[in-house]
Amino acid sequence: VTALAAHAAYLDSTTVMFAAVDAGDPALVKMLNHKSVEPLFTAIVQSVNRRRNKLHAGAIESLADLARTQQMVSRTTLVVLTIGVCFLCLFVLIIRTYQRRIADGLNAEIARLSYDALTDSLTKLGNHRAYQEAVQRSINQALDRGEQLTLAVIDVDEFKMINDRNGHAHGDHVLSMLGK
């Protein structure tokens, strides 16, 4: 018997019982109460209690599942967060390493370009600009120290003839040997 069907029968029985109460027949009221109203009420209570117990057990199980899920999510979140922070630190370390490498490479390239800008590629001696800067530095040092400065200029006589007679490669060789 479903709870709704029992409830409908219970309402019908109570209607009959109250009619007996209104008629003033206490023996009929007592008999109707014991034979139909009370058993139907007990059946309804038992049906509701069984359903409540079943739902209560399901709710307890669902709460336990929810607690396990929450615990798993908490642990997983902690693990994922830790891994994320580790990856972030690794990423920062990699970026800093590459920044340092780029800065070192840039400094080396600047030093190489500065050297190339002031050096003759054939003789490896300072070029005209380096010569002017070195002369100015030497003049300033001599003035600061109260010293005299002597400048010697070397001229390679007949260098054009060396180039014309033996070729430019030989002329370059002569210049590089003079530079040494």
Mean pLDDT over the full residue set? 92
Rg for CA atoms: 54 Å
The total count of strands amounts to 0
Report the helical percentage: over 70%
What does the largest sheet look like?
none
- DSSP strand content: under 5%
Low-confidence segments? none
The helix tally amounts to 5
Note the quaternary state here: single chain
For the termini, the CA-CA separation is 118 Å
Could you provide a short overview of the structure?
With 180 residues, the protein is mainly alpha-helical. Helices cover 84% and strands 0% of the residues.
What does this protein structure show overall?
There is one protein chain. The protein is mainly α. The protein contains 5 helices and no strands. Helix 1 (3-23) packs antiparallel against helix 2 and helix 4 packs across helix 5.
